[in-house]
Amino acid sequence: MSELPSGWVSTTIGEINDYSSGNIDPLKAPAQVFELYSVPVYPTGKPEHLLGQDIGSTKQCVEPGDVLLCKINPRINRVWMVGPKSELPQIGSSEWVVIRQPLIHSGFLRYQLSESSFRDKLCSEVSGVGGSLTRAQPKKVATYPVVLPPFAEQTRIAAKLDELLAQVDTLKARIDGIPALLKRFRQSVLAAAVSGRLTEEWRAQNFGCVDEGGPITEPASSSLPVGWSSKTAGDICGFITKGTTPSKEKMTAGHGEVPYIKVYNLTFTGALDFSIDPTFVDSSTHSTDLKRSIVKPGDVLMNIVGPPLGKVSIVPATYPEWNINQAIARFRAGDEISAAYLALCLRTEEVLSHAVSRAKATAGQFNLTLEICRELPLPVPPAEEQTEIVRRVEQLFAFADQLEAKVASAKSRIDHLTQSILAKAFRGELVPQDPNDEPASVLLERIQAQRAAAPKAKRGRKASV
């Protein structure tokens, strides 16, 4: 910060930190219950209560109001504050840098150490061999600058941040819940589509028939609309087959003659995504070793090994022929059903549940046989209605996609909002300043005087339990 607000001062963490290392070995008190502030449980917001015999290493003694700064990647962005005094001994992981200063508002300090400029500096000066083994060095952290407003202003800033960031968290939770709602919406649309409810009014207008069927949640095989029939995939599709996997030397990455589709290229939306690690085989392998698994534009593909099951994609016309691996089944729509409508049916919860209930499960993996694929139940409307169903589903899904994009954009803005609020707070722009507040320079002098008068603690001393 180039210019501090009136009454503020700049100092370093080392100049204000009264914490002196005090270690404790909980194993020496196996029956004692400890309140442990460990790095892994930080997301819960609550310390663990553990017996000493269940704590496997030496810990640090901490006190209420201590600010805990994680020094190890990938959790280096975690800043915690020790809660009110407990009846249990309060201890913390050795992966925290502990900052203690009773004359500074702990909440204010915790928020300042969470602000992006401090985080960037901390992360830029880690050391170690890389990845999760890199750590911030406490001696360096002690030299990092912090700003101090008057104590009364610290209190006002911390209270305002508590209020605003709680609102941001509420907003985040609501935004985070929308994708699940959209997933349920899409499944509701598919259920309505294959039950006939989605086109009920359309049938009445075009054919003058009104159905008396049950609700859209009923199985597609019951109460089918007039003109619909219940079929199996084997009844209305051409030969249903699955893919083959050639030896590694016969596959090339990124380029080649015939595209080779793997499960990760299938999606839950009906589209094929061949931009993900595209793989190819040569024409000779395609027409000989993999002849059984040749697929063409318009074929419908479904993964038969999971979890997750339920990936369904229509082969596009980008290439005249494609090939597939052994974890994918090919459905070729016959005269009674369109590829687009078939793909919708295969994506419904009813078809997926039918398949899973009959799948072979081994070590948590589901495998669908071709026999299961051929017996999948499909409600088949007249061709004209299939076209209308597909049109309406695509329209509703496009609406859901637009909403999903807006949600992603809103989530990005909300994710930046927290840091914007923090930055504003530490520029002195979040709360009004009061000229009657005791200047922070006086506070800093008091801290320095108390630290100078305090006896020097012996470093590394282990506390008694």
Automatic annotation (TrEMBL):
The keyword DNA-binding applies. Residues 225-406 form the Type I restriction modification DNA specificity domain. SUPFAM superfamilies: DNA methylase specificity domain. It comes from the Bacteria. The keyword DNA-binding applies. One of its GO terms (molecular function) is DNA binding. InterPro entries: Restrct_endonuc_typeI_TRD (IPR000055), Restrct_endonuc_typeI_TRD_sf (IPR044946), Type-I_RE_S_subunit (IPR051212). Keywords: DNA-binding, Restriction system. Belongs to the type-I restriction system S methylase family. This is Type I restriction enzyme, S subunit. It comes from Ectopseudomonas toyotomiensis. The lineage of its organism: Bacteria, Pseudomonadati, Pseudomonadota, Gammaproteobacteria, Pseudomonadales.
